[in-house]
Specification:
Jelly Rolls; globular; Pro_4_hyd_alph
Length: 251
């Protein structure tokens, strides 16, 4: 993997760390939205937006939802917006599949916490990149992930390939990850790796840590394979294009 530099150790308690990188040309092939489309690009890490206690509460939402299904392979997802839930080698719609039973699994408080956390992350991204928070829209896919060391059964389980979010999902302009478990305590491997030409920059997950970045090729990245334990996170994605915006999940 060449030279690896750790941007954020699990033991760090970072108020704000931001590294600016030159923007790629990916944004030029999409409609630009003044006051939102990235003009300043980069990546940031903060442990000061979400508390560990909140991260634990959010993780319990993920655990309860994922207990209804789960992939046969190592990567399971739960999307509260669309209802997509990994089940075996496929996905089901949680809301259709479980119907009114959903009320026994999630509460209004769960969804209120989810909304609140998402808004705080959105405000922090807007602040750091000098854009208006109201010009950003939540976009899909925004989802919980649970990863373990089980071998992949389908391509959906193969989460470790390098990719660019803007290329994979054209709507993405800003990507964020809220980690819900601790590297080296809850799981091994599974670090987040920015792949730069000269070196790799890694982020070690820690419950409550938010990693965020502009979604273009300036932030090519991958996740290391999880070697042991279970890694929980939530990916929260933002677009500048109102046509690609999605609403908050509703119970």
């Amino acid at each position: 993997d060449g030279v690896t530099e750790v941007l954020a150790h699990r033991s760090d308690n970072l108020r704000d760390k931001f590294i600016e990188v030159p923007c790629s040309e990916d944004y030029d092939s999409h409609k630009r939205f003044e006051g939102c489309t990235p003009r300043k690009c980069g990546r940031g890490v903060t442990d000061a937006v979400i508390t560990r206690e909140e991260a634990e509460r959010i993780r319990r939402i993920a655990e309860r939802g994922l207990s209804l299904g789960g992939s046969d392979g190592g990567a399971s997802i739960l999307d509260l917006h669309s209802g997509a839930l990994s089940l075996g080698k496929h996905f089901v719609n949680l809301y259709r599949y479980f119907g009114d039973k959903i009320q026994d699994i999630f509460t209004e408080e769960d969804f209120a916490l989810y909304r609140d956390v998402r808004q705080r992350i959105q405000h922090r991204i807007a602040q750091v990149f000098g854009i208006s928070s109201s010009a950003m829209y939540l976009t899909k896919p925004t989802f919980f992930s649970r990863m373990n060391s089980t071998g992949a059964k389908t391509t959906h389980d193969e989460y470790w390939h390098p990719h660019v979010d803007k290329v994979t999902y054209g709507s993405f302009d800003y990507t964020s990850l809220l980690y819900l478990s601790d590297y080296s305590e809850d799981f091994g491997g599974g670090r987040f790796v920015f792949m730069d030409a000269d070196s790799n920059k890694t982020v070690e997950p820690r419950a409550g840590r938010v990693s965020f970045f502009t979604s273009g090729s300036e932030n090519l990245h991958r996740v290391e394979k999880v070697q042991w334990g279970t890694r929980f996170a939530i990916t929260i994605s933002f677009t500048c294009d109102p046509e690609h915006g999605i609403g908050n999940p509703l119970l």
